């Protein structure tokens, strides 16, 4: 039986797998990537397309996000994929939201050094015509956030890996087992020196014992999208409100966050119970992506709850006014998540095999930088 040969095998065609294939190919490896579906259909295309550095844990994770941003821009320059340097606005319509943002800036010099700052309501409205002016107290402007269109970016990245680096991508190929140097797949056996298992939400097919001990659970989210906005209208900076300050690790060290959480719990109990915080981004063809909610468990039902969608839209209406808010798509997404403060799961179940998982909802933001760190270690 003929056995194919490569230096490195990657399992998984989502952003984590593609990022590892890119890092290995840049190192000079001959890379083969296996994706069991005919094209990527998981979390990597069911997201906002936000390269959201500002929300990441301070220190090394924030720097990793900024490095990922650089790689996205490098890739966009080579491929022409849409990557808008829009930046972001954290909008504050309540004094306790202003307090958290000001404390964050006062205690995070790395963000200030990159131009993150508080701006007035007038400056905010000059940057974003979408922002609701009623009751606006201030905003935090961050220039580092990048907006890509995930449904276009992921296929474009895969094509780039093939054309630029000669990566052999095998769609529709399921990996049955790994016993290095052999990787057994439905598309034939391969002999490789090393393998990276980046299988995302399907984290139990290979090395089930590793994953049973990993602490990983699944996160279910609900998201929506409008149709293209009229007359080529552009969102500009990506937007979020006060609930987002309770979601991202960047704000965990802010002591003022406790008062915000107390108020939100009293005023928005349904939102808090369903892990709702609201972000707004745009796609390459002008559609607006809105979401999302968060439910965590090993097994989650596949059904949408329209009350959650309505709660998201109601909260969006408190800080943004859309030209055409009609929803044309709704979907449920799933991704693996670590609930203990870790930003990723990286384990070696056997020599030459590295499992990379658990980046949660930050896959688009962190994967390029994470892959470089892992591949080059």
Explained architecture:
By secondary structure, the chain is α/β, with parallel strands linked by helices. About 30% of the residues lie in helices and about 25% in strands. Strands 6, 7, 8, 15, 16, 17, 18, 19 and 20 form a nine-stranded mixed β-sheet that branches. Strands 10-3-2-14-22-21 form a six-stranded mixed β-sheet, with helices on one face. A hairpin with a 5-residue loop joins strand 17 and strand 18. The longest helix is centred in the N-terminal third of the chain and has 20 residues, at about 60-80. The model has no long low-confidence stretch (mean pLDDT about 95).
Summarize this entry quickly.
The protein contains eleven helices and 22 strands. It has 377 residues and is an alpha/beta fold.
List the helices and strands and how they pair.
Blueprint: E1 4-5, E2 8-11, H1 15-26, E3 31-35, E4 50-51, H2 60-79, E5 83-84, E6 88-92, H3 95-107, H4 109-113, E7 117-119, H5 121-127, E8 138-142, E9 146-148, H6 150-165, E10 168-171, E11 175-179, E12 182-185, E13 188-191, E14 194-197, H7 208-212, E15 216-226, E16 238-240, H8 257-267, H9 269-273, E17 279-282, E18 288-291, E19 295-297, H10 306-316, E20 327-338, E21 345-350, E22 353-357, H11 363-375
Parallel strand pairs: 1-13, 2-3, 2-14, 3-10, 6-16, 14-22
Antiparallel strand pairs: 4-9, 5-9, 6-8, 7-8, 11-12, 12-13, 15-18, 15-19, 15-20, 16-17, 17-18, 21-22
Helix pairs in contact: 1-6, 1-11, 2-11
């Amino acid at each position: 039986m003929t056995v194919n040969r490569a230096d490195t095998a990657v399992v998984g065609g989502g952003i984590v797998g593609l990022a590892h294939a890119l890092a290995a190919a840049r190192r000079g490896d001959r890379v083969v990537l296996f994706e069991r579906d005919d094209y990527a259909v998981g979390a990597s295309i069911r997201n906002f397309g936000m390269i959201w550095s500002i929300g990441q844990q301070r220190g090394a994770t924030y720097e990793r996000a900024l490095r990922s941003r650089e790689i996205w821009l490098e890739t966009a320059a080579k491929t022409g994929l849409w990557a808008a340097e829009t930046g972001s606005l954290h909008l504050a319509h309540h004094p306790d939201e202003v307090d958290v943002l000001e404390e964050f800036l006062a205690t995070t010099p790395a963000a200030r050094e990159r131009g993150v700052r508080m701006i007035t309501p007038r400056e905010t409205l000059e940057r974003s015509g979408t922002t609701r002016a009623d009751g606006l107290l201030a905003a935090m402007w961050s220039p580092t956030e990048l907006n890509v269109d995930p449904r276009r970016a992921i296929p474009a990245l895969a094509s780039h890996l093939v054309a630029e680096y000669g990566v052999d991508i095998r769609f529709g190929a399921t990996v049955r087992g790994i016993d290095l140097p052999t990787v057994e797949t439905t598309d034939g056996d391969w002999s490789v020196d090393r393998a990276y298992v980046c299988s995302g939400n399907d984290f139990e097919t290979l090395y089930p014992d590793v994953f049973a001990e990993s602490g990983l659970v699944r996160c279910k989210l609900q998201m929506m999208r409008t149709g293209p906005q009229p007359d080529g209208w552009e969102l500009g900076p990506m937007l979020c409100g006060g609930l987002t300050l309770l979601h991202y690790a960047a704000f965990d060290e802010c002591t003022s966050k406790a008062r915000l959480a107390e108020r939100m719990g009293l005023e928005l109990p349904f939102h808090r119970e369903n892990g709702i915080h609201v972000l707004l981004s745009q796609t390459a063809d002008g559609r607006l992506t809105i979401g999302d909610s968060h439910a965590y468990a090993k097994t989650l039902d596949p059904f949408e709850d329209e009350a959650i969608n309505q709660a998201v839209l109601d909260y969006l209406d408190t800080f943004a006014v859309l030209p055409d808010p009609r929803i044309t798509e709704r979907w449920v997404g799933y991704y693996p998540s670590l609930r203990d403060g870790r930003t990723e799961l990286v384990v070696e179940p056997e020599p030459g095999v590295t499992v990379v998982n658990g980046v949660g909802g930050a896959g688009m933001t962190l994967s390029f930088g994470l892959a470089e760190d892992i591949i080059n270690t």
